[in-house]
Amino acid sequence: MIAGAGPTGLMLAAELRLAGAEVTLVDRLAARSGESRAGGLHPRTLEVLDQRGVVERFLAEGRPVQAGHFSALRLDFSKLDTRFGYTLLLMQADVERLLEQWVAELGVQVRWSTPVTGFRQHADGIDVETGDATIRAQYLVGCDGGRSAVRKLAGIGFPGTDATMTALLADVELDDPPAEWVFGERREHGDFAVIGFGPDWYRLVVNQYDFVADRTAPTSFDEVRAAMLRVAGTDYGMRDPRWVSRFNDTARQAERYRDGRVLLAGDAAHIHFPAGGQGLNTGVQDAVNLGWKLGAVLAGRAPESLLDTYQTERYPVAARVLRNTMAQTALSRPGPHTDALRAEFAGLIDLEPVNQALAGMISGLDIRYPTDDPHPLAGRRVPDFDLGDTRVFSLLHQAKPIEVKFEDGELEAVGVRPDGHVAWVSPRVASPQRAG
């Protein structure tokens, strides 16, 4: 059973269905809100979707742009070793719609208006209470956001740092839009961005430092306009808001990702400032890591201890995201001391090795899971190299492990996990004739 039908929950449902598991997917909301905090898919997430044979659905509706950045300092994704060297601009609402269509094809429908209100774990299952019904499952995965009911009911701590600033967001029409995107413009009282998402609407984000708004108070369009005028000196003629919201730089991570038959993924396991657009992408990749493992355990193909590797592998990834988003927030603060730090950092980020190291981190392409295999490929994502008339990623569409054998070169065979990471590498051993 999966609680939360956002990108993480939907991706996990798909992974579990591909693994042969029966899935119940519930959400406390009555229906989708249509709101979109996230607005883009990173290279590794696009690779994951390609591994499942559905990436073309997303490419058809998104717009590829060179929008990778670290605290609004540009990163060059085009030089990364991937077929997707860019950010795909695609609103979260559209990502959810496309994922929901896919999981429906796999046989899963979202049960709306179904909040998780309690559960009882047993040796052979878990009884999940959903208000007026109790559902029996083998496992419960909380993909229900930063205020996760599942995490709270499990008594899992959520330590971290409190907010130090407030960000306001508005999707609007502009009478006087800037000629080009305003991408992280820093001013005396904060910074702001103006991003065009369509022919007649824009996303405005304005950050105010050393001010934390009451998160329970509603966000108003006039509040966003006033903040833009104060920070940017103009509101660009903003009108007809589609959506307004606020968020902050609170950073927290669950003390553990598993408690018996309860697991956490996505924002339920980690929250942070959305610097670099890493939140949705990290959650989807959580789901792909957990999905094949949970599917294998449910099918009896693997021992339950395999689930412990989910935290071993994914906890450090999210911890790094929290660190780098906190660093990006620090680099964006107004003031002469930050100006000096930013100038020095900008010089470093212009160096290609630094730029590519940060691009690999933000894009998710540099992740290497811990492994006993000393080969440099072990634990890393497998490159999508061509294999005659097919590709490696094409062989992963059914979320099954594969073994790729080579007739020549330094490698003899590579074992690839269902999530596209290298499980083991068998280097070619020179024969006596070759050695001679």
Structure in words:
The chain is an alpha+beta fold. It folds into 3 domains: 2-160 and 252-363, FAD/NAD(P)-binding domain (3-Layer(bba) Sandwich), CATH 3.50.50.60; 165-248, 2-Layer Sandwich (Alpha-Beta Plaits), CATH 3.30.70; 386-435, no CATH class. It has 11 helices and 27 strands. It has helices spanning 7-18, 43-51, 55-59, 92-105, 149-153, 221-232, 279-298, 308-332, 336-349, 352-363, 432-435; strands spanning 2-3, 25-26, 40-41, 63-65, 69-70, 73-74, 87-89, 110-111, 118-122, 125-129, 134-137, 140-142, 160-161, 165-174, 182-187, 190-198, 201-209, 238-248, 251-253, 258-259, 262-264, 270-271, 386-387, 390-391, 402-405, 411-416, 422-427. The strands form 8 sheets. It has a 6-stranded mixed sheet with strand order 8-2-1-12-21-20. It has a 5-stranded antiparallel sheet with strand order 15-16-17-14-18, covered by helices on one side. Helix 7 (279-298) runs antiparallel to helix 8. The longest helix is centred in the C-terminal third of the chain and has 25 residues, at 308-332. Residues 431-436 have low confidence and may be disordered. GO terms for molecular function: FAD binding; oxidoreductase activity, acting on paired donors, with incorporation or reduction of molecular oxygen, NAD(P)H as one donor, and incorporation of one atom of oxygen. Its cofactor is FAD. Pfam families: FAD_binding_3. InterPro entries: FAD-bd, FAD/NAD-bd_sf, RIFMO-like.
